[in-house]
């Protein structure tokens, strides 16, 4: 990580959420000195090599990453765990972030899991499309992008931040979170730019990039899971559908089940399993945003997404 430290001095800096500062790199804000950081992005660009059979899940933080990781892991590995006793399924004993790692965390391990990974290798990332290593872009692999209503992302990130924030920074107020978010300042943000680039790529490469929303996944879970399975090359057979295999995966990966499994323990030191499970609902923002805050975010969203077919069901 230290190898990239000297580059930070030349970058624009802003107030951070979980960490003291965020740095602007290739049009996006990144924290420093830990996983999911500017150093991770640089190290990945330098060393990571994608395989054409890889599957990537890309999200802005707090857009449903944990849920999507669970669903994709369960879908792709369903035959592997078909005959094991149901209680030994990894998702019943382990956090989805362990089952399906993020490259920004793996890159700093002594032996990253992807070194000997069986095909297809499954990875997640919060890295903006424009900063992904060329090998991911050019390898022809499949990528699922999941986005969520910005107001719920803001609220979710606000809570996550106050659970994990450096103690020296004190608690963040919601007003502070709102101000930073609406200026685009958040790790991997601006939110709108992150979404827009992946949306554009999904239109240009529909066979390689699938664009989903958390809201559709919540409202229409079974159909979205079937669509996801087909896109990834693991469609459900008629027999599986008749036997309730889709519903089984939906239940296994549902908020109720995963939040129960992850009540205790840690993903790693300082990162409790339960920090990824809060409400799991669409529209919790109504409990936090004033009318004025809501109006401002609506205006920004309308302006940024103008002419694009990006909307969030309620
Ligand atoms: P990450 O990007 O840091 O990995 P991510 O999983 O995207 O976090 O965000 C957590 C959000 O997903 C939480 O939303 P909330 O704060 O509004 O409640 C969390 O509750 C929600 N979440 C986690 N697992 C599920 C699930 N199985 N179904 C629906 N929502 C979920």
From TrEMBL:
<comment type="similarity">
    <text>Belongs to the sulfotransferase 1 family.</text>
</comment>
<dbReference type="InterPro" id="IPR027417">
    <property type="entry name" value="P-loop_NTPase"/>
</dbReference>
<dbReference type="GO" id="GO:0008146">
    <property type="term" value="F:sulfotransferase activity"/>
</dbReference>
<protein>
    <recommendedName>
        <fullName>Sulfotransferase</fullName>
        <ecNumber>2.8.2.-</ecNumber>
    </recommendedName>
</protein>
<dbReference type="InterPro" id="IPR000863">
    <property type="entry name" value="Sulfotransferase_dom"/>
</dbReference>
<keyword id="KW-0808">Transferase</keyword>
<dbReference type="Pfam" id="PF00685">
    <property type="entry name" value="Sulfotransfer_1"/>
</dbReference>
<feature type="domain" description="Sulfotransferase">
    <location>
        <begin position="52"/>
        <end position="308"/>
    </location>
</feature>
């Amino acid at each position: 990580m230290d190898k990239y430290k000297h580059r930070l001095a030349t970058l624009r800096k802003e107030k951070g959420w979980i960490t003291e500062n965020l740095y602007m790199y290739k049009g996006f804000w990144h924290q420093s000195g830990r996983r999911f950081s500017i150093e991770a992005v640089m190290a990945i660009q330098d060393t990571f090599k994608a395989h054409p059979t890889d599957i990537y899940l890309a999200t802005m933080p707090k857009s449903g990453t944990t849920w999507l990781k669970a669903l994709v892991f369960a879908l792709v590995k369903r035959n592997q765990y078909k005959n094991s006793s149901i209680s030994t399924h990894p998702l019943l004993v382990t956090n989805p972030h362990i089952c399906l790692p993020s490259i920004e965390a793996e890159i700093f391990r002594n032996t990253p899991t992807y070194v000997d990974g069986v095909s297809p290798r499954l990875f997640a990332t919060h890295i903006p499309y424009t900063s992904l290593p060329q090998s991911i872009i050019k390898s022809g692999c499949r990528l699922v992008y999941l986005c969520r209503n910005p107001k719920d992302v803001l609220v979710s990130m606000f809570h996550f931040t106050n659970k994990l924030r450096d103690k020296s920074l004190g608690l963040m107020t919601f007003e502070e979170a709102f101000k930073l978010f609406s200026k685009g300042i958040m790790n991997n943000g601006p939110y709108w730019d992150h979404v827009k680039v992946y949306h554009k790529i999904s239109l240009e490469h529909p066979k390689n990039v699938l664009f989903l929303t958390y809201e559709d996944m919540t409202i229409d879970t079974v159909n979205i899971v079937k669509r996801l399975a087909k896109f990834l090359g693991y469609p459900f057979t008629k027999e599986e559908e008749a036997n309730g295999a889709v519903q089984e995966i939906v239940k296994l990966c549902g908020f109720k089940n995963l939040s129960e499994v992850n009540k205790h323990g840690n993903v790693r030191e300082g990162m409790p399993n339960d920090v990824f499970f809060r409400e799991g609902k669409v529209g919790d923002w109504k409990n936090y945003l004033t009318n004025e805050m809501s109006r401002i975010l609506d205006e920004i969203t309308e302006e940024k997404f103008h002419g694009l077919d990006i909307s969030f069901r309620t």
